Amino acid sequence: MSTLLENLNWRYATKKYDASKKISSADLNTIKEAVRLAASSYGLQPYRVLVVENPEIREQLKAAAYGQTQLTDASQIFVFANDLNAGTESVAAYIKNISETRNIPVEALSGFADMMNGVISNLSQEAKNIWTAKQTYIALGTLLAAASELKIDATPMEGFNAAEFNKILGLDKLGLNAAVIAAVGYRHDEDDAQHYKKVRKSHEELFITI
Question: In this structure, what DSSP letter does residue 65 have?
Answer without folding.
Answer: T
